[in-house]
Amino acid sequence: MFNRDRWNEILEALTANWFRTILTAFGVFWGIFILVILLAAGKGLENGVKQGFGDIATNTMFMWTQVVSKPYKGLPKGRRYNFKIGDVVSIKDQVPGLLYVSPRNQLGGFGGTNNVVRGLNTGAFNVYGDYPEIIKQDPITITSGRFINYGDIENNRKVAVIGHGVEKELFKPGEVSVGDYIKIQGVNFMVIGTYKKKSGDGDGEEGQKEIYVPFTSFSQAFNYGDRVGWMAITATDQNSITNLKKDIIDVVKVNHTIHPDDDRAVGNFDLYEEFSKINGLFVALRGVAYFVGILVLLSGIIGISNIMLIVVKERTKEIGIRRAIGASPWAIRGQILLESMFLTIISGMLGIAVSTGVILIINKVLDGMPTNDDTMFANPSVDLTVVFVALLILITSGLLAGLIPAQVAIKTKPIDALRTE
């Protein structure tokens, strides 16, 4: 219940020496401020790094062939081999828990010779032979037309989906690219769609300069036969691709007569494993932020406890009088604890408010900066859980800060307190 006299007494005690009260409260203010800012900065860094993954399916591994490093069944080491379409079928049949197994072939690329022509315009672009599932593993935004489908695959249609960078170099402003033709290494392909990369996958502008064509028509047009350059393999949500990786590689080793212990013959990049490491790093960073913030906060709590001891010493005679006229030990203890909690919570809430304002300003500045997919810092923020944790810390800290002074106050005998000068 609200007691005006008690709160007037608290305010008088805390305002009797403004300068001392402000310096004491600053320790708690600074501790909470540092805690919130560190957590927000960690979240901003986490958002920036994860933004680099974009919408790519993180439960994915990429696999390619390398040189065989061990002889096996009469076959020498140092030999080269190629994935085949049969490997894709074997992996799908023999390894349960997989969502997509996408074979891919590739031509050209940045820094290579010009491999795409339209009229008098030429360019060097990455050309991928893909299956429709690739758009779910490495998402892109279709801005006009459509992406390749299984009708294109089954009928070996010579169709292509081009990036905005390709369209800009091969077509004049205002020209409609969909329905027109481009020539890839002398073979005509009809443009059926244009795309824009959703994610900042590290490619920058080159990510918009890629061409997707059906895997089957790619193999037919460029004499790849049943060869597969590499694969993108995604597991279902219930399975980790990291746990399935060995089974997948074992299937390839059996198909190509590779020694079971030859770990160099099949190259792979486990995106899920790398993503898990990054998540672990940010969990550790949050732990460090809490550790540092709470340590700074504790120094402020110790300061409040020391000041409350001084306040109790200054009010010894007052406490003695209250005890003499019948105040219970709990009433004295409650008064000291209430003063300590009030000072702690007010200064802590001010720290939360100021840190929130700083975060809002930083976000405004970031929003006003040019968009860059390669940024490593984005949208620093703290959620409501952090605020509740901070409030819990403040309440607990206030109780701890006033506990020792309160015990000192009630241990003083009334007669001794009245004699104090």
Q: Can you offer a commentary on this structure?
A:
The structure is a single chain. This protein has 421 residues and is an alpha+beta fold. It folds into two domains: 4-54 and 276-419, no CATH class; 60-269, no CATH class. 53% of the residues lie in helices and 17% in strands. The chain has helices spanning 4-15, 18-53, 85-94, 134-137, 150-154, 164-170, 215-221, 241-255, 271-314, 316-324, 329-368, 384-411, 414-419, and strands spanning 60-65, 83-84, 98-107, 116-118, 121-123, 126-130, 140-145, 159-163, 181-184, 187-197, 210-214, 227-228, 230-235, 266-270. Strands 1, 3, 4, 5, 6, 7, 8, 9, 10, 11, 13 and 14 form a twelve-stranded mixed sheet that branches. It has a two-stranded antiparallel ribbon with strand order 2-12. It is elongated, with a radius of gyration of 34 Å. The mean pLDDT is 81.
